[in-house]
Backbone:
C-alpha cells in the first residue's frame, strides 16, 4: 500500500527505496528540502527524519517511513497527506530555483 501510494502521490523530485523485506521505506527529498520542517509543521503523519540517523553528515532531506502497523487504507491516506505537504514545500523550492537562489546540480 505504501509503495503504491508513493508512486501515485509523491512529486517526481522525490525518490524512495522499494525494500524486499523489513519495516521501513527510505524517502529522499531534494537536497535543500528539510524533512524536520515538514515534521514540525505537519502533525498528522509522523516519520523519522534523517539528521538523527546521520550524526556525522547531518543529511536533513530524508525520511524513514514505517509501514508495519497501519491498515493499507490508513497508509494510503497518510501518504496522500504527506505527499500534499511535500508538494507544497516543493512549490517554494521550485520558486527559489527559478529565482536563481538555489543551484540544482547537473545530472
Residues:
Amino acid at each position: 500500500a505504501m509503495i503504491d501510494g508513493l508512486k501515485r502521490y509523491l512529486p517526481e523530485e522525490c525518490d524512495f527505496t522499494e525494500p524486499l523485506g523489513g519495516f521501513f521505506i527510505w524517502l529522499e527529498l531534494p537536497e535543500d528540502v528539510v524533512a524536520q520542517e515538514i515534521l514540525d509543521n505537519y502533525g498528522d503523519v509522523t516519520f523519522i527524519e534523517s539528521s538523527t540517523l546521520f550524526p556525522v553528515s547531518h543529511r536533513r532531506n530524508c525520511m524513514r517511513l514505517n509501514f508495519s502497523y497501519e491498515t493499507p487504507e490508513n497508509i494510503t491516506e497518510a501518504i496522500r497527506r504527506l505527499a500534499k505537504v511535500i508538494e507544497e514545500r516543493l512549490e517554494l523550492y521550485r520558486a527559489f530555483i527559478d529565482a536563481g537562489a538555489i543551484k540544482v546540480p547537473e545530472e
Q: What stands out?
A: Helices lie at 2-9, 35-41, 72-98. The CA atoms of residues 23 and 69 lie 9 Å apart. The radius of gyration is 14 Å. The mean pLDDT is 85.
